[in-house]
Amino acid sequence: MKIAVCAKVAPDTTTPRIQPAADGSGIDTSGIKFAVSPYDVFAATLGVELVEKKVAASVHLFTVGDEGDVATLRSGALALGCEDLTLIGDDAAKAADALGASKALAAAIGKDDGITLVLTGKQAIDGDSVQVPGMLAEFLGWPLVSMVSSFETDGTTFTAVRNVGGGVQETVQGNLPAVITCDKGLVQPRYAKLPQIMKAKKKAVHTPSLGDLGLSADDVAPKASHTAYGEPPPRPPGRVLDGGDLSSTLDQLVTALRDEAKVL
Amino acid sequence: MSILVLAEQEHGTFKKTAAELLAKATELAGSLGTTVDAVVLGTGADAASLGAYGAARAFVVDGDFSSYDGDTAVAALAAAVDAASPSVVLAPASYLAKDAIPRLAARLGTGQGSECTDLRVDGGAVVGRRPVYAGKVLCDVTVSGTPAIFTVRANSFGQPEAGSGAAEVVQVSFDAPAPRLTVVKRETPEQDAVDLTEADRIVSGGRSLKSAENFDAIIRPLAKALGATAGASRAAVDAGYAPHEEQVGQTGKTVNPSLYIACGISGAIQHLAGMRTSKVIVAINTDPEAPIFEHATYGVVADLFDVCPQLTTKLGALDS
Ligand SMILES: Cc1cc2nc3c(=O)[nH]c(=O)nc-3n(C[C@H](O)[C@H](O)[C@H](O)COP(=O)(O)OP(=O)(O)OC[C@H]3O[C@@H](n4cnc5c(N)ncnc54)[C@H](O)[C@@H]3O)c2cc1C
Ligand SMILES: Nc1ncnc2c1ncn2[C@@H]1O[C@H](COP(=O)(O)O)[C@@H](O)[C@H]1O
User: Fold this and answer.
1) Domain definitions of chain B by residue range
2) Whose CA is closest to atom 1 on ligand 1?
3) Residue B245 three-state SS
4) DSSP calls for B137-185
5) B3 pLDDT exceeds 80?
6) Rounded distance, CA A15 to CA B306, Å?
């Protein structure tokens, strides 16, 4: 069995400030450090672990994105021990929404019938959309297990623990093929060391066009569009309470919560 | 061409998001000149009662929804969409929505706007406003496919008053797909608290709690006194003071309560990413320079080991 990992490049989580572009068409990317979206690092780590355990033969990375993402994906994901990277980066693909991107990913993954397990992040930390894995599963016709915090497979069947909300955890079993979305707790995410990064410089990057995947620009034309990017409204200024002694301060707090903020 | 709202139920009781979304849909439908319908998965709940929040019809899909199965949910929702032929679908941003709604969108060949915190009508269409980049930026989302699908974060609009109407109940049948996944075990947490992502009140503790025992003795009683759900910073989770599922932040849960009390939490950017949309933020911290104070509605500069027990007592006294 082979594994596909879908990974996306997004602003690093430590970026203190993200600002909308002046024309509101997106964000101002100047000065932002980019990295592989953290949950996708979980996915790549799990894939590589399954190869090390000899359950899987190889891990193949897939991304819909920009030529400029390749360097980040090489050091942040390929270097962990993935085999190669497929970049779908036509202009039409770059402009696609989650639906179009999923269609392109499904077409690319579907070309290799040895792939029976797709690992994704539970969400990409740019748009925080949680759409691509479900849409991809639907286009592939495979079952989806979302928010997985533990995963085992023998290459034919799998057992996964999913976080279904409210602290409830369900253990589910099924047969491959399947799409799994990776949540916290699944693996200890790995970060590549310099020799691995050097080695990854030589790994193959395939760049099929949409046409090569049997798709047209129309097939991936966006149905959802994101516009009018802007700053969140400023929070009303807060205040530090001080009633002299702690008990009076806390009385002020309770009164403020009840009568002013009306949340009690 | 109505607005179809997914009214989620659990053991025969509708979740709070059902009334919240129906009331918002009713407002939007007024501007669009259309009506509101609800879809209910399973027969256990009183579907007609959704009329009290503006649903004209309630499409009840008859099937076994006792445990969650994505294939079943998608097929059932597709059948309801077929029966109701809505122009807009609204769903809460719950686990079901995260798992099944994108699959529904792909099956219907339409687009989705995720995790909206506001909805309005503009130019004859519904426009969602939503946080992206962990809430550091907001944007509008519109959907050109039919139906236009939006998921909405809990507590975005507040709870409406119930009116008096009753919805016309329409039974929908569907072909339940053969199961591909089997749930072999289900573990529920001991404390039966509301899920963090749906909680209206949250009390969170950080590294400064110093132990799991302190977390249980200081944070949980305060949460209980408030009817709140407990949350934690990553530092507290990594140190083993609280379980993973209680982590709030970039790599934890994104929450949207009306009240968030941060006890001994510094306010790191990754923590803020998970809770910055909270309506009222209270910060309790010994360090007046802690970044959390820049985001707090009310700040108390004091030791949480003194503050929390006293506050728990004062809140307890309030109820009686
Ligand atoms: C990729 C990445 C992802 C991350 N994801 C998350 C995430 O999802 N969630 C998250 O929370 N963090 C996350 N972090 C970690 C984050 O950067 C911070 O390290 C973490 O939030 C700090 O937790 P804390 O506020 O509990 O601890 P600290 O930063 O150590 O703050 C402790 C605070 O408690 C105060 N204090 C100490 N004693 C007392 C007392 N007795 N009474 C009152 N106040 C007291 C101190 O003044 C201080 O402000 C992430 C980091 C990275 C790099
Ligand atoms: N453009 C993309 N290329 C490859 N994988 C993606 C892309 N967008 C999303 N994904 C995958 O889908 C997951 C969820 O993303 P999202 O639906 O955007 O929240 C991510 O963690 C990735 O694994």
Assistant:
1) 3-172, 201-319
2) A13
3) helix
4) EEEEEEE-SSSEEEEE-TTSS-PPPP-S--PEEEEE---PPPPSEEEEE
5) yes
6) 35
Q: Whose CA is nearest to atom 7 of ligand 2?
A: A8
- CB-based contact, A245 to chain B, within 8 Å: no
A105 vs A101: CA distance, rounded Å: 6
Q: Is the pLDDT reported for residue B139 higher than 70? A: yes
- Confirm if B44 and B73 have CB atoms less than 8 A apart: no
Reduce the DSSP state of residue B103 to 3 states and report it. helix
> Using CA atoms, how far apart are residues A130 and B224, in angstroms rounded to an integer?
31
Name the residue with tokens 């109940």. Answer: B169
CB contact under 8 A, B279 and A125: no
State the fold for domain B201-319: Rossmann fold (3.40.50)
Tokens (6 digits) for A219: 């097939």
What ipTM score was computed for the predicted complex, to two decimals? 0.91
Task: State the Cα–Cα distance between residues B218 and B220, nearest whole angstrom.
Answer: 6
Minimum Cα–Cα distance from A18: chain B residue: B136
Per DSSP, helices labelled H in chain A are: 38-52, 70-76, 91-94, 98-110, 132-140, 194-200, 246-255
B3-172 and B201-319 have identical folds: yes
Kindly give the number of the ligand 2 atom that is closest to the alpha carbon of A182: 21
* Location of structure tokens 């009686």: B320
Q: Which residues lie below 8 Å from residue A71, measured CB to CB, with a gap of 6+?
A: none
Strand B148-152 and strand B36-41: pairing?
unpaired
The matching CATH number, chosen from 3.30.2010.10, 3.20.20.140, 3.10.150.10, 3.40.50.620, for B3-172 is 3.40.50.620
Residue B107's closest CA among B73, B138, B141, B135?
Answer: B73
pLDDT digits (tens, 9 = 90+) for A78-126: 999 999 999 999 999 999 999 999 999 999 999 999 999 999 999 999 9
Using DSSP's 3-state secondary structure scheme, residue B95 falls into: helix
Q: Is the dihedral angle over the CA atoms B193, B196, B198, B201 positive or is it negative? A: positive
- Mutation probe of ligand 2 site: the residue of A118, A132, A213 with most atoms within 8 A of C-beta: A132
CA atoms of B105 and B91, how far apart (whole Å): 12
Q: How far apart are CA A1 and CA A4, in angstroms?
A: 10
A187: closest CA among A122, A232, A124?
Answer: A122
d(CA A230, CA B138): 5
Report whether A147 contacts B95 (CB < 8 A): yes
Residue of A nearest to B310 (CA): A247
Which tokens belong to B280?
A: 């009222």
Beta bridge partners of B57: B37, B168
pLDDT in tens, B204-220: 999 999 999 999 999 99
Under 8 Å between Cβ of A28 and A19: yes
Report yes or no: A122 and A181 within 8 Å, Cβ to Cβ: yes
Cis amide bond preceding B309, omega within 30: no
CB of B33 less than 8 A from some CB of A: no
Q: Judge contact between B267 and B293, C-beta under 8 A.
A: yes
Sign of CA dihedral B148, B149, B155, B159: positive
In whole angstroms, what separates CA B310 from the centre of its chain?
Answer: 30
